[in-house]
Structure formats: C-alpha cells, structure tokens
C-alpha cells in the first residue's frame, strides 16, 4: 500500500505504471469511506491493473463553510478500510495547497446547462468546484477508467460532459447506488445522523420507490404533489427539491415520452444534514 501526498511523486508513479503497460483505474473520493466507495474500488480493481484512490476534501465545491468544516475527515480509518480490500491501491491524499497553491478558487465551466438544474440551483458554484478538482485530478492521475457513484447522478453527468468537452482520454464509469439495509443511500454524511435520524431518512428511498411505481400511471405533477405531502407529513425531514427529469440532459419532465429515460431526484435535510438520492424510473 502506497500513500502519496505530493503530485510530483504521484505523477512519477503513474509514469512508471504506464511504462510497464499497466492500466490505471481511478476512484476520486473525499474520504470518510463507506461501502459505496469500497464497491467502486472493487469494481476498479476487477477491471484495471492498478487503482488510485484520491482522498481530498475539496474546498471549492462547498458553498457552505460550515458543511466544509463539519465534513468528516477520517484518513487513518480510510486507509485501514482500503487495506482490508487490497494492498495494491495507491492512495493520493494531498493537502489543499498541493492542489491549489495559495489560490483556492474554481475555474468557470459550462456544462451545457446541466449545471443549472437541481443541485446547481441550491449549491452556488458547486459544480465549478467539482469540475475544477476532477479536471486537476484527471490531469495528475491520467487514468484509463474513472469510477463515480450514481448517487451523485448530476455530478456523474457533469463529469461525462467535462470529459467530452475537454476530450480527455478517460472512460467514466457510473456505478449503481449502494444502500443501507433500510434503503438509505450510502453517504459519508450519514455518519453525522443520529440513529433516529438515520431511521427516518430511509423515507427518502421509500418515496422514490413509490414514485417509480406511479410514474406513467399518474402525471408528473400529481406525483410531485404526493411527494410534497409525504414530506409535510413527516417533519423529521425537510424537502429541498423533488424533480422528475430526463436522465440525459436533466431537464424537468412533465410527462412520459416513448424511448426517453427518466429519473426522480430528491434533496432533503435531516436537521442540518443534507441528503440526496435518486432512482431510475424506466
Ligand atoms: O463525489 C465526491 O466525493 C466528490 O464530489 C469528488 C468527485 C471526489 C470531487 O471532489
């Protein structure tokens, strides 16, 4: 197991892998690893000769300073967790100045409108921050394949767009959402939920499953009304948005069209902890 903190040593190691003709898989993370991350790492290990996992809480993608401050940082535990899976993983865990120097700012991107939907409406600058760090990491790691969870489905679409626009030679692999037994989507933020909050948060997935059942039978607006009522009747969670959208361009869907793929999306608060989830509707 190798843990590197400097980009120069990372690049040197990557060059050595490439000179040996090895394929490189990449799993970018912000640490506080859970089973969802581990499944991405296992998937990368099964398809690539070498796997790089980055652990970096990226400051430019947080629109809320308190969210950044409270984001769990558990490097030692993360390293131990990865070791249980494989000792063949290279961990890249840089400090912020190694990535950004003294200028912790985002680049401005256009993702052809994807960035203005859902999360983009509520988290100003978030996707510029994600684009900035993923671009920087892709330039350092130069992976053949990079793995992202569908829990952050909008992020996944945006990263595919980034790769397309910059013509980066990397295959972006989207991986299914990993869930707790209750159905709650796994997230590093779940660690901050009390056991009661955690139980209540399972409602998000139950609602999404009902939406999946009803889509095509009821109209999108009837479904939206039902979802808003469910949240109103369950004050443990506060709905930020519910959206049924076209799965490719993430534009709001009003009805179901033949040959079109749709997903439903929810962002909700449990106390001050923001949770997101989504489900494929067809
Ligand atoms: O999904 C995440 O954990 C982050 O947004 C990512 C892709 C590692 C960039 O910081």
From TrEMBL:
Binding site for beta-alanine: 61
Pfam families attached to this UniProt entry: Pantoate_ligase (PF02569)
More about this protein: The reaction proceeds by a bi uni uni bi ping pong mechanism.
Assembly information from the UniProt record: Homodimer.
Entry's EC annotation: 6.3.2.1
Underlying gene: panC
Active site: 37 (proton donor)
Pathway of action: Cofactor biosynthesis; (R)-pantothenate biosynthesis; (R)-pantothenate from (R)-pantoate and beta-alanine: step 1/1
Upper taxonomic lineage: Bacteria, Pseudomonadati, Bacteroidota, Flavobacteriia, Flavobacteriales
Gene Ontology molecular function terms on file: pantoate-beta-alanine ligase activity
Annotated keywords: ATP-binding, Cytoplasm, Ligase, Nucleotide-binding, Pantothenate biosynthesis
Protein's name in the database: Pantothenate synthetase
Organism listed in the record: Salinimicrobium flavum
